[in-house]
Automatic annotation (TrEMBL):
Gene3D superfamilies: Hexapeptide repeat proteins
Residues of the signal peptide: none
Keyword Glycoprotein recorded: no
Superkingdom in the source lineage: Bacteria
Family the UniProt entry places it in: Belongs to the transferase hexapeptide repeat family.
Official protein name in the record: Acetyltransferase
Enzyme class: transferase
InterPro entries registered for this protein in UniProt: Hexapep, LacA-like, Mac_dom, Trimer_LpxA-like_sf
Length: 201
């Protein structure tokens, strides 16, 4: 197996020239993206870099990632400023995902033993985020985590374990606070109806 194949399989690997060249290419694309004022041009740059995107998505600059080609965005994806994705393994998002500013997703991992870690060996674990997920600002998601559908993650949370669908979760480490309920839905439907009436929509 090549070092890239080992990386994507979640095995120990060492960055070789192939991987270093990919990261240099990604760094160049991101320099263009982060300095480009036109949203359409920025979107085109990301379509050429990322592993896959929906038809509609938006990432506000600045944005950082290691490779980009292991990031997959669903439909109607939005990320606010300073998104960081370390995509040594696949990082996949469902539809209608909204990320607050300074959200970080780290698929990269390093050996606990210092002697081995100091050799440069590392590994990765994939991250999966379901559909209809909102993460508040400064959320951190560690490698190997799956977040279900219809989830709200509170600002500043550190997600170290899987989060089931249909819940509000927060904290360090992140934990489920309560389920999302029909009462939540009814409240926000009512608020939206009041907004439409007030604004003539």
């Amino acid at each position: 197996m090549t070092q890239k194949e080992r990386m994507l399989a979640g095995q120990l690997y060492l960055v070789d020239e192939e991987l270093a060249a990919e990261m240099r290419h990604t760094a160049g694309v991101l320099r263009q993206f982060n300095s480009e004022p036109e949203p359409e041009v920025r979107a085109a740059l990301l379509r050429g870099l990322l592993g896959g995107t929906g038809r509609s998505f938006k990432i506000e600059p600045p944005f950082r990632c290691d490779y980009g080609s292991h990031i997959y965005l669903g439909e109607n994806f939005y990320a606010n400023y300073e998104l960081i994705v370390l995509d040594q393994c696949d990082v996949r998002f469902g539809d209608n995902v909204m990320l607050g500013p300074r959200v970080s997703l780290f698929s990269a991992g390093h050996p606990l033993d210092a002697d081995i870690r100091n050799t440069g060996l590392e590994y990765g674990k994939p991250i999966t985020v379901g559909s209809n997920v909102w993460m508040g600002g400064c959320v951190t998601v560690n490698g190997g985590v799956t977040i279900g559908d219809n989830v709200v993650i509170g600002s500043g949370s550190v997600v170290t374990h899987d989060i089931p669908s249909n819940v509000i979760a927060a904290g360090n480490p992140c934990r489920v606070l309560r389920p999302l309920t029909d009462a939540d839905r009814a409240h926000w439907q009512q608020e939206a109806a009041r907004w439409r009436a007030a604004c003539g929509r």
